[in-house]
Design brief:
The chain has four helices and eight strands, in the order βαβαβββαβαββ. The chain is α/β, with parallel strands linked by helices.
């Protein structure tokens, strides 16, 4: 789908549209505490600190896209996948920071009540 030698930088709008169309599987490579505090709805957590490309879930007909806080760790995950022979090359450029800067919704946990809250 994408070039084998470059990391495909996807914009927040591209990722949102692909999520809404059920075309991608979004993998958040931030640490569990970061993921618990705030995340993109539908993302799965596979922390980079314990990342193993072989442990990624089957995406079937979806494209795997990585995401982190700013884009650095997700680019590292793409590199690790390439080195392991996986054809995964896309990430959310700018991470969740860019996502929020573009006004995209996230899910947070209320630290007082534990309630899950959608933030738009």
């Amino acid at each position: 789908m994408f070039g084998a030698t470059m990391t495909k930088d996807l914009s927040p709008r591209e990722v949102k549209a692909a999520l809404d169309a059920h075309e991608i599987l979004l993998i958040d490579v931030r640490e569990p505490a970061e993921f618990a505090a705030e995340r993109i709805h539908g993302a799965l957590n596979f922390p980079l600190s314990t990342f193993d490309p072989a442990a990624l879930p089957k995406a079937d007909d979806k494209t795997i896209v990585f995401q982190c806080g700013s884009g650095k760790r997700s680019a590292t995950a793409v590199d690790q996948c390439r080195k392991a022979g996986h054809e995964i090359d896309a990430h959310l450029a700018g991470g969740i920071m860019a996502w929020k800067a573009h006004g995209m919704p996230t899910v947070t946990i209320d630290s007082d009540t534990g309630a899950v809250r959608d933030r738009s």
